[in-house]
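Query structure, 557 tokens:
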């Protein structure tokens, strides 16, 4: 009787013997690949007693007989002693077919129940400092178990595989290099055993996170099985599939394949279902967001009701769902006015304002995302800005300018800065709301960028006559500007911005009077003498008409 160990040794020896062969290189490589597959399968059977399994014993005898014939062919190719090329090519094709048949037969007897957990030897996982060859051997053993093992062996092999690939990126590289392992994972996604499907989806999700291996997964036909998992898999399987698709569709080249397999419909169904968990909805939104870059797919999404579906999700109590849905709305409408109008009609702008509302229970991250979306979708149109004002957005923005966390406050300042560059009506509304007194407080911030934004925004607001009068009514505003001007170094950027604001205030009688009667005029004159930008203009403005005498008295006292 022939043992499994004997078969492994013979095949390993044959593989080594065939490597130096120079002729018919392609055909010998195909034979070696099949021999390695057989060797990997037999390794999993090594502790199975072939004497007690007559079918297996007969299988091993047939494999050894074929190996012996192959040795003869290999010897003749090494010695170049074959009678003709065509005949040798035919003999090699026959030999490959034999080994392929052996592999299929071995698979058949194992899946029929002959190979079980009790019969298979367990290959221990190599240690942390193991070489690549040891890891390859371990992965081949896991591959064999996934291919020919019973349900429990498959499940345990997938669990072990997942534990390894999440631990070290280098292991993922070795895994992908092991032939057929990706194809097996793809096939297991269609398993009727939900537990097997779940574990396979988890492993695929890890591999799909590596840019280098996304093309390998796509080439193995991963998209179709992933979509089928979304349609009929368990909740855990769906989560793994959605995460994989989100990573794979970061490259828009893969968008069409997702759409072709019905992925958009399946993803929208997940987003619509009240039973879908956060861990599933978030990556589903992420996939949809990645697909909107393809115009035809975007149109299909709109026809399928994606906009109202995602607007509804923006009102979720879960931060991750809110952020994912808002990102989608921002992407789908960012460069398309017709979609932006649809978002507005469906209540999208109102939904974003509700998320931003300080009275809501939303997190800072959700508010930040909502504010960015509001800026991108609404600030380009006077009509949308009016809509925002009607929804109370100005009061919300002012609140966060006064009381927000640093990150939200900075975004609020940037938003206020952008709004100040819009219409006269918007500037009036901001003046009435109380933005000017808050912007003044940012003029002595440590960051020059913050000081600059505040100064430019304030200068824009006080260019409106109504706002100028309101601003100078508070003596502290003008006094603070002059005090900052006195502190700033000559020719600094901040000093120039402060002078530009004061120039705007001189267009108002009360503003000119307050500046002229302050105790900072000598400083302003020195700046003019130092050729500081606009300082001379400021002096001339203050020196005209009835203010000339006041100025002379003050300057010569």
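Result returned for the query:
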């Amino acid at each position: 009787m022939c043992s499994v160990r004997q078969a492994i040794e013979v095949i390993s020896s044959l593989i080594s013997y065939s490597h130096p062969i120079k002729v018919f290189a392609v055909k010998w490589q195909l034979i070696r690949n099949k021999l390695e597959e057989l060797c990997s399968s037999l390794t999993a059977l090594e502790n199975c007693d072939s004497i007690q399994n007559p079918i297996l014993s007969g299988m091993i005898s047939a494999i050894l007989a074929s190996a012996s014939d192959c040795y003869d062919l290999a010897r003749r190719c090494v010695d170049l002693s074959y009678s003709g090329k065509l005949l040798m090519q035919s003999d090699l094709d026959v030999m490959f077919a034999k080994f392929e048949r052996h592999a299929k037969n071995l698979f058949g007897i194992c899946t029929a129940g002959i190979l079980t957990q009790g019969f298979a030897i367990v290959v221990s996982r190599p240690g942390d400092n193991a070489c690549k060859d040891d890891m390859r051997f371990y992965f081949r053993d896991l591959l064999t178990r996934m291919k020919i093992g019973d349900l429990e062996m498959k499940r345990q092999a997938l669990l072990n595989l997942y534990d390894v690939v999440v631990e070290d990126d280098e292991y993922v590289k070795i895994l992908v290099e092991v032939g057929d392992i990706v194809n097996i994972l793809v096939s297991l996604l269609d398993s009727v055993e939900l537990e097997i499907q779940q574990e396979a989806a988890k492993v695929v999700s890890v591999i799909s996170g590596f840019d280098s291996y996304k093309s390998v997964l796509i080439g193995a036909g991963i998209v179709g099985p992933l979509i089928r998992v979304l349609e009929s898999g368990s909740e855990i399987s769906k989560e793994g599939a959605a995460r994989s698709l989100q990573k794979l569709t970061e490259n828009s080249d893969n968008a069409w394949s997702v759409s072709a397999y019905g992925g958009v419909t399946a993803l929208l169904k997940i987003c619509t279902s009240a039973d879908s968990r956060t861990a599933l909805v978030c990556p589903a939104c992420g996939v949809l967001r990645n697909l909107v870059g393809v115009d035809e797919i975007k149109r299909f999404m709109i026809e399928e009701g994606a906009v109202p579906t995602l607007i509804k999700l923006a009102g979720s109590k879960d931060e991750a769902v809110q952020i994912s849905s808002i990102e989608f709305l921002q992407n789908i409408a960012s460069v398309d006015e017709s979609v932006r109008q649809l978002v507005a009609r469906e209540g999208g702008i109102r939904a974003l304002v509700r998320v931003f509302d300080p009275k809501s229970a939303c997190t800072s991250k959700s508010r930040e995302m909502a504010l960015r979306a509001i800026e991108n979708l609404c600030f380009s149109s006077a009509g949308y800005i009016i809509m925002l004002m009607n929804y109370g957005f100005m009061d919300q923005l002012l609140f966060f300018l006064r009381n927000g966390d640093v990150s939200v406050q900075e975004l609020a300042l940037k938003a206020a800065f952008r709004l100040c560059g819009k219409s006269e009506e918007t500037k009036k509304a901001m003046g009435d709301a109380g933005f000017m007194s808050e912007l003044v407080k940012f003029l002595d911030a440590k960051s020059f960028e913050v000081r600059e934004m505040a100064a430019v925004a304030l200068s824009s607001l006080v260019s409106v006559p109504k706002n100028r009068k309101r601003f100078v009514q508070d003596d502290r505003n003008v006094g603070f500007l002059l005090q900052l001007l006195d502190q700033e170094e000559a020719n600094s950027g901040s000093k120039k911005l402060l002078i530009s604001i004061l120039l705007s205030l001189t267009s108002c009688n009360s503003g000119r009077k307050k500046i002229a009667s302050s105790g900072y005029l000598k400083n302003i004159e020195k700046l003019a003498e130092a050729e500081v930008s606009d300082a001379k203009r400021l002096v001339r403005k203050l020196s005209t008409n009835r203010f000339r005498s006041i100025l002379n008295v003050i300057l010569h006292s």
